[in-house]
Specification:
This protein is 61% helix and 9% strand. The protein is mainly alpha-helical. α1 (21-51) packs antiparallel against α2 (56-67), α1 (21-51) runs antiparallel to α3 (70-82) and α1 (21-51) packs antiparallel against α5.
């Protein structure tokens, strides 16, 4: 009996022989950048943790930095699983692990954003006045707020640089986890500025500035979570393929639908990880080649079935 399903892992794990060379190169670059992200974020979290004190804005910024570890980790895990060859138990392979990783990252962002907003609002209602102490360094009393501001400034630089570097591979891979991670990294300057203003607000006697800054950071986390969750749910329930950065239908999916209509055919599409697949119903099997001509590597594994008179 001929066994058409390979049981082993693809050579090299991350090689992904089913993708064109430029896509494999982008995946390798994305993995390198995510490993760098984990290293830099670990240093940011360590430094922020040392100077957090009683500032709620600092605690919220520190939690956001901890949450920022999740997208890189999920991306690395998803690409590792995705590189595995199909098995008898998973005959379609593991392309959808990217969808599952995207959903997990979105759910965590949404949950923590909600909790942090509640904490900021509760602090404002209770009118809690945070106190920032001082440290003795080289015989001099140094206000801890200055160290907090330096830590926040440091927390801005590496993620913003990495966020810009991730944009190109995210687009080439059409990877929603990677693009969400890059957008979060690029927006980290907002978190840093909000935290710095909160610390300065305490110094100027505005006790509420700290909780307000924490609330603004939490809203940013929640907003990222809501947008990501909408796209992740649509993908997991076999919705039509979505655009990389919005909830609108993907351009290639729209083009496939238009070409099918011009041929008097019908097509049903879904997104499986980073690829588009589906079923074309038409009178001629050659229509498959006609509608996919000139489209990208993402359009794969389309199947055909006859369109009968009753379907017209």
């Amino acid at each position: 009996m001929l066994d058409l399903l390979p049981r082993s892992r693809h050579p090299g794990g991350e090689d992904h022989p089913e993708y064109p060379p430029q896509v494999r190169e982008a995946m390798a670059r994305g993995r390198r950048l995510e490993w760098w992200s984990l290293v830099w974020l670990a240093s940011v979290i360590a430094i922020m943790g040392l100077v957090t004190g009683q500032s709620q804005a600092m605690r919220t910024a520190w939690i956001e930095d901890c949450l920022s570890l999740l997208p890189p980790a999920f991306f690395l895990l998803a690409t590792w699983f995705e590189s595995r060859a199909p098995t008898h138990r998973f005959p379609y392979g593991f392309h959808r692990t990217a969808s599952l990783a995207f959903f997990a990252a979105a759910a965590v962002l949404l949950s923590f954003g909600s909790v942090l907003i509640y904490g900021a609002v509760a602090t404002l209602i209770r009118q809690e006045h945070p106190a920032i102490g001082s440290l003795r360094i080289a015989g001099e009393e140094v206000w801890l707020g200055w160290l907090m501001i330096l830590a926040l400034a440091y927390s801005i630089v590496p993620p913003v640089i990495l966020g810009h570097l991730k944009q190109r591979p995210a687009e080439l891979l059409n990877d929603k986890v990677l693009v969400t991670d890059s957008e979060m990294n690029k927006a980290d300057w907002q978190t840093g500025v909000a935290g710095i203003l909160g610390i300065l607000g305490i110094a100027w006697g505005f006790w509420w500035a700290d909780a307000l800054a924490a609330g603004l950071i939490a809203v940013s986390i929640l907003w990222d979570g809501v947008g990501a969750l909408r796209k992740a749910v649509a993908e997991l329930v076999d919705g039509a393929p979505r655009d990389l950065r919005s909830d609108r239908i993907d351009d290639e999916a729209l083009l496939l639908g238009e070409r099918a209509r011009q041929l008097g055919a019908r097509i049903v599409l879904r997104e499986t990880g980073r690829v588009i697949t589906g079923v074309l119903e038409s009178r001629d099997p050659a229509d498959l080649g006609r509608i996919t001509h000139g489209l990208s590597w993402r359009v794969r594994d389309l199947s055909w079935r006859p369109l009968g008179d009753r379907d017209l």
